[in-house]
Design brief:
The complex is a heterodimer. Chain A is mostly helical. Chain A has a domain of about 40 residues: Orthogonal Bundle (Histone, subunit A). In chain A, strands 1-2 form a two-stranded antiparallel ribbon. In chain A, a hairpin with a 2-residue loop joins β1 and β2. Chain A is flat. Chain B has a domain of about 280 residues: Amidase signature (AS) domain (Amidase signature (AS) enzymes, Alpha-Beta Complex), CATH 3.90.1300.10. The longest helix of chain B has 24 residues. The chains are: A mainly alpha, B alpha/beta. Chains A and B meet through α1 and α2 of A and α9, α10, α11, α12 and α13 of B.
Chain lengths: ~100, ~500
Amino acid sequence: MTLSMEEVEHIAELARLELTDEEKSRYRQQLSAVLDYFARLQTVDTRHIPPTFSVGQLQPNLRPDQAQPGLSRQVLLSNAPQVEQGQFRVPPILEDITTDKHG
Amino acid sequence: MNTEVTDLTLTKAVRALRVGDITSQELTLACLERIERLNSILHAFLYVNRQGALEQAVVADQHLQAWRNSSPGNRETLPALLGVPIAVKDVLAVQGMPCTAGSRILEGFIPPFNATTVDHLLAAGVIIVGKTNTDEFAMGSSTENSAYGVTHNPWDTNRVPGGSSGGSAAAVTARMVPVALGSDTGGSVRQPASFCGITGLKPTYGRTSRYGLIAYGSSLDTVGALGRTAEDVATLFTLMAGRDKRDATSVDLPVPKIELNGQGKNTTGSLANLRVGVPQEFFVAGIQPEVEKAVREAVRVLESLGAQVKTIHLPHTEYALPVYYLIAPAEASANLARFDGIRYGPRAQTDGQEAGQNTLRMWDVFRKTRGARFGAEAKRRIMLGTYALSAGYYDAFYGQAQKVRTLIKQDFENAFQKVDVIAAPVAPTTAFRIGEHNDDPLAMYLEDIFTLTANLAGVPGLAFPVGFDKQGLPIGMQLMGPHFQEQLLFQTAHTYQQITDWHERKPRLD
């Protein structure tokens, strides 16, 4: 199977990846080859086979839902690329905010 | 030269430290000097903790000295590995040391906490001398996918050490450290152990905590150990395993204290009750003839020790590759969504700019940060996983893969009705040349065909050297066992290592 360029761009958009044109055409070709190889999976009869999502214990070991001490604000912000007033500074999200003086 | 302290195994180093034949400062300094001398050739380490390690060694020596001075009848129990230097793969968090996972998207990231496995080992007294190279986010079989440059195989520096735990494998092989931590999602401990001629364990899924391990494929990820003998790896494993309330998939079972029998050469009949299965599906076209020969010869050695050997079948092995390369990228595409340039790691373009010039909007920051800072293989797997999970393709790809995973798991359950352990090659070939699989992802993925099934089924696997090819490159064999039967794997490999010396060979680097 061959992925179309539109499909590659759609997947990249779902994954929030900015790709160059060269990357897009390379991934188009490589992913198509990989998916071709994977087509052999379709030959396995799995009509009566349940899926396996985890090979560990069936019941996850959950702790009681009680608040516990965590890391301090200062420690949690120590790796942030931009901090303002003790918080993560994030880029503007909505269009109209970016056009005002706060920009 | 023959009595260098860096040649000591973990077991021997612990003994020498206790009796005072060596000090932790001597051993740690010797390891650091070896790292400094050889890292320019091998590039096994991304970060070296020289000062911190030497300071810890001073404290360890004081502790050891006080212990030796105390009266033998009244001694405290020393931490099991007090004063021993180890290395940690750069996908595990060590507080205060940079942690990149081999990626530029984590450049400069310093974790404020320890992985649980790291915590357990620090409590046992180890000294962490540095962080070792890895394929980006543990995605790869050669360390060529590290954003910080490839690691070289100590047996032939034109060749890869395997991956993704290639830095840890090269470091142990080159005697930079006696043991190291790795992670294994599809063979990332066992395959580099095989390519470098050392011993490496992928534990049962859930046996070692994943807390503080940078997540790749969460239903497959395990934290494993590499060393030069089965005994050393067993020691490290028992100290780092166990239930962790911070990892809901970690298993609430006591970790057995592993007692290895067969010290010395008197091993006659010592594997008398062991049933060893050899899966026919692992000896396929494309396997290097010397690999097949060495593995079959090693199985004959087990037979000579009393084991009963029989041919078995794991009929769905041929589907393991597509199953793995759908499930692991699908899980990775979700796990790697957290790297967006907001809470940690560099942020695209807006870095360092004045707030008023901050013109990029949120979605653009995500796209640009991720596009610029993920490497080619990480992007390829994110794309593959996103596709496999996307509307219209979920049932045909991801859903079908999860069902065939059930069949692979059942293959193992059926096999372990008939045999106690399974013996098989680790990889179809010995170490390949750097650059050999450039731009052919499928050829690279095929390197993993013998290791993937253990992760898909969750069973433990132990790789160890069983020979060398004509070019002087190590050949590995893996033993796989039922869930939580690591002890059986260690006992078998340990017995084998009592009457063979492949694991004692040392590459010439000086």
